[in-house]
Protein: DNA-3-methyladenine glycosylase 1
Organism: Morus notabilis
Amino acid sequence: MAKRSKTQSQITATEASQISESPSNSSKIPFRARKIRKLSSKTPSDDDETSINENSPQQKLQSSSSLPQTLTEPLSSQCEINLALNHLRSSDPLLATLIDSHRPPHFDSDRSPFQSLAKSILYQQLAYNAAKSIYTRFVSLCGGESSVVPDSVILLSAQQLRQIGVSGRKASYLHDLAEKYKNGTLSDSSILEMDDEALLAKLTVVKGIGVWSVHMFMIFSLRRPDVLPIGDLGVRKGVQRLYGLKELPRPLEMERLCEKWKPYSSFGSWYMWRLMEAKGVLATAIQ
């Protein structure tokens, strides 16, 4: 278990005030209205220092224990967002300092689940600007954002994708995702109705999509409120700094320390990215 540092026992108001007022492109959470659905509080476990190896058996299969109570609706209105922030303020005084020194998250995405997953694949392991450039060319190749659909993606050859900077491996990932939509394994509607556990199991079957990618998809695209990406290095470093830990917390320690955030762990994670940006460490979530 990680030990507390005497010199880093808490985050000060001065440190919190250094946090950027505007979420960066690398960690802004886009939300949009969805239907109410029942969610699971289960989150996967990962002992790796980073979350780059998305296809390892450990990344695909590990999951953590759940608590009996879960939030049953996505964050889709300012009222719900305020409720989440008030809960975090009251349950975690250290996190309250961050919340009170930063504007609430801004949610503004309108991509479909398929579009978000395709984008996630293209952005993996790339610098933000490089990934953004490739994604822009990919959208153009498909015929526009609205044409990023399984039927159009599956028709793109590996050669066409290579010409816009997509590696052969990622081309195979995109084709596998499109094929699973075509054969009925996945659909936008089924994704929206799945609970967290079922969604994790379904999406990690897709080539190139691992536990970390699913966590980011749940937070940023589906606006699921109670996701704690315990394998994300930025979130782990944020927790380390927030609670003044001498060592980087391991997954079980993360779950214990962040249990008080439930049922709004996604927001707590968002503020960990903000905290690390203030220290010059970019968040790992890519939008």
